[in-house]
Design a protein that fits this description.
Enzyme class: oxidoreductase
Radius of gyration: 20 Å
Largest sheet: 8 strands, mixed
Number of helices: 10
Structural class: alpha/beta
CATH class of the largest domain: Alpha Beta
Order of helices and strands: HEEEHEEHEEEHHEHEHEEHEHEHEE
Keywords: Metal-binding, NAD, Oxidoreductase, Zinc
CATH superfamily of the largest domain: Medium-chain alcohol dehydrogenases, catalytic domain
Helix content: 10-25%
Cofactor: Zn(2+)
Strand content: 25-35%
Number of strands: 16
EC number: 1.1.1.1
Family: Belongs to the zinc-containing alcohol dehydrogenase family.
């Protein structure tokens, strides 16, 4: 019997004791809400940090914030119709607070986050590791063209959109020398996006398999020397310090990988002043960046080697097998609920 008829759905509920797959009541969407059947979810590194204890999170909860799916029910005033194939943002914003009005909706004073909410709260079906997810008002959704494969579309809601925000912060890339530190999903995506914009891209990562994948997206292995722009997705203080030391006159360093506590980085203020350097950070993204992410993936789904980035999916009952770092050379595990 179909899950909508049974009014139940299946979800992987994570807690400190592990993950259990169980039946969850299927909600009726309220005003502005969408009920989505999840077609594919990819496993972001932040979820691996949660499971390993490196990142605090509500427990129990349904993890998973990178996914693609189809709308099966829509509440009054929702911005998508039943049947639409969509991706969605990590954050749900109020749209009214001072931060939202300043354009920082990802840092909304009342922000709630997909895949980061307590299962025992008022939004239990909040993560992508489930057959269905409820998207509240305030979550940005973007329609995905049919030709874009699920494995290409799913990371849009975190990795790809974050990269779009990072590139916006970096400024004009055409003809610029760009160093990308970290060849995970974000770094490799950034390689493809920077190369598409006419940059000369260098990749730095301690894992040769990841560097090889980045080369396929348009990078050259880093051989040192000055650069105009450096983008750090590694979160390594050593990598950040090394990148900063290579920024040429008027250059920019954008930090996006430093999302867990780590070592501090010393810098010479005089060098920043005399070099007209810009150092900035990006965490999450704004609705426009999710739109740009889907546009980028729609242009490149059949021209860049995305097939090598995401592993073949496992079923929900096998989720334990993918809540660990994927094999080298693969950037994302995936789940087909």
């Amino acid at each position: 019997m179909d899950t909508l008829t049974r009014r139940l759905t299946r979800a992987a509920v994570w807690s400190a004791d592990g993950v259990r797959v169980c039946d969850v009541e299927l909600p009726t969407p309220g005003p502005g809400e969408l009920l989505v059947r999840v077609d594919l979810a990819t496993v972001c590194g932040s979820d691996l940090h949660t499971v390993s204890g490196r990142r605090p999170a509500p427990s129990p909860s349904i993890l998973g914030h990178e996914a693609v799916g189809r709308v099966v029910a829509a509440g009054p005033g929702a911005d998508q119709e039943v049947g639409g194939r969509i991706v969605w943002s990590v954050t749900a914003a109020c749209g009214r607070c001072a931060r939202c009005k300043r354009g920082f909706t990802a840092k909304c004073e009342q922000v709630r986050k997909v895949g980061h909410e307590a299962f025992t709260g008022d939004w239990p079906l909040s993560g992508g590791y489930a057959e269905h997810i409820l998207l509240p008002a305030g979550v940005t959704t973007v329609t995905v063209p049919q030709p874009v494969p699920d494995a290409v579309a799913a990371p849009a809601g975190c990795a790809t959109a974050t990269v779009m925000a990072v590139l916006e912060a970096a400024g004009d890339l055409a003809g610029r020398r760009v160093l990308i530190c970290g060849a995970g999903m974000l770094g490799v995506t950034a390689v493809g996006a920077c190369a598409e914009r006419g940059a000369h891209v260098l990749i730095s990562d301690p894992h040769p398999e990841r560097c090889d994948l980045a080369v396929g997206f348009g990078a050259r292995p880093d051989t040192g020397g000055p650069v105009d722009i450096a983008l750090d997705f590694s979160g390594s203080a050593t990598a950040v310090a090394a990148a900063l030391s290579r920024i040429d006159l008027g250059g920019t360093l954008v930090l996006a990988g430093s999302v867990t506590p780590g070592s501090t980085v010393a810098f010479d203020p005089e060098a920043v002043v005399r070099g007209w350097l810009t150092i900035t950070g990006v965490h999450n993204y704004e609705p426009r960046h999710l739109v740009h992410a889907v546009e980028f993936l729609s242009r490149t789904y059949d021209t860049l080697p995305w097939h090598g980035a995401v592993a073949a999916p496992v079923g929900l009952d096998a989720i334990d097998t993918v809540l660990a770092p994927p094999p080298r050379g693969v950037l994302r595990a995936s789940i087909n609920p």
